[in-house]
Amino acid sequence: MNKQKVVVAMSGGVDSSVAAALLKQQGYDVTGMMLRLWSEPGKEESNRCCTPDAMAQARRVAGILDIPFYVIDAKEVFRETVVQYFLDGYARGETPNPCLVCNRQIRWTFLLNHALALGAEFMATGHYVQRMMAENGKIKLLRAVDHSKDQSYVLHVLKQDQLAHALFPVGEFPKPEIRRIAADFGLPTASRADSQDLCFLAGEDYRGFLRRNASEILVPGEIVTTMGKSIGKHDGLANYTIGQRKGLNVVSPVPLYVITKNAVGNTLVVGTLDELGFTELTAHDVNWTSGETPREPFHSQVKIRYTAREAEALVSPLQGEQVSVKFVEPVRDVTAGQAAVFYQGEEMLGGGIIS
Tell me, what DSSP letter sits at residue 255? Predict the structure, then answer.
């Protein structure tokens, strides 16, 4: 009997290492693949996803598990899609989330195609999320058992044809259990620290990256109140985030926060804490995990960024892969370029980019 073949996207971290170990233990024919991603010239040692050390760790894990291991060059496609998306988003006055594009275009298109070409039936990652087959044959994505590590937010971009080939072995375990499993297998990644930042930022603040790679978008302009009164100067919209209070360098009798960024007029709009809350938003490029757009408005818990708490809202599908989201209570820090992702209980339904 031929074993089912699965490619594991390895990063040199504990989660993908344990994913490979668990799948081999379950009887799959496992192959490890790692992507070599673009780094700024001179900063190759610092890229969080594919440093020489991370690559050596992944290769060592593959040796311990006795599985084949390949490195795929993705530098050009990563630079053209993910990094350019990041730069273009800031040029539009948004705060983009490049991890969404990376999952859609790099992991679950570019790498998946390599896995399928190798003859694999599945591709697995170390994402904390659960995959479930529904009675109607559709594949659902559920939150991870460990809610504190749940990554369903960044996987709202996946479609049914991609999910048909997807496995997420670590999603049913708490993170401490994953580290224990890694230690039981004798994997050197058992105590390796988690990576938090965007890989190509090499651990530094994004502003420095923008200054070096897109300085033309850092154009000074006016800081204005929500009533349109000019009260100061900013040094480039990309240097500010929605909800930011410190570093505005304006004189005011009350604390002021960044409310929005107007790219057309190159103005930074600030206001009081009360003005920071939004009761509705529109999102575009909406992907429904089921592949079917809901016909009627529905109640949902909505996350407006990866680390945000869910907020109760009414979600109304619109034409052209858009939705309107109306919150029960005002929500702070609604940010264009981030994703609004929809949940009902443990199930993640889909999401789109906040306009």
Answer: -
50 is catalytic: no
Closest CA to 44 of 199, 224, 243: 199
CB-CB contact of 310 with 299 (8 Å): no
The answer to whether the CB of 194 falls within 8 A of the CB of 13 is yes
Return the HEC string of 223-238: EEECCCCEEEEECCHH
- Provide the CA 70 distance to its chain's centre, in angstroms: 24
Q: CA of 272: how far to CAs of 281, 318, 330, in Å?
A: 19, 32, 14
Q: What sign results for the dihedral spanned by CA atoms 41, 47, 53, 56?
A: negative
pLDDT digits (tens, 9 = 90+) for 291-333: 999 999 999 999 999 999 999 999 999 999 999 999 999 999 9
Q: Cα-flanking dihedrals φ and ψ of residue 70, to 5°?
A: -130, 150
Give me the pLDDT at residue 42, please. 74
| Domain 276-354 in CATH 2.40.30.10 | yes
Q: Which of the residues 49, 50, 99, 199 is marked catalytic?
A: 199
User: Domain 219-271, what architecture?
Assistant: Roll (2.30)
Domain spans of the chain, in order of start: 5-201, 219-271, 276-354
Per residue in 11-44, pLDDT (tens digit) is 999 999 999 999 999 999 999 999 999 988 877 6
Short-list 235, 234, 239, CA closest to 206 = 239
Instruction: Could you please state the CATH topology (level 3) that the domain comprising 5-201 is classified under.
Output: Rossmann fold (3.40.50)
> Where are any strands of DSSP class E within the chain?
5-9, 29-36, 69-73, 122-124, 129-133, 139-143, 166-167, 221-225, 230-234, 257-262, 267-271, 277-288, 298-303, 311-318, 322-332, 339-344, 347-354
**Helices and strands: H and E segment counts in the chain:** 9, 17
- Give the per-residue pLDDT at 200: 83
CB atoms within 10 A of CB 343: 20
Share of residues in the chain with pLDDT > 70 (%): 97
How confident is the model at residue 194, as a pLDDT? 81
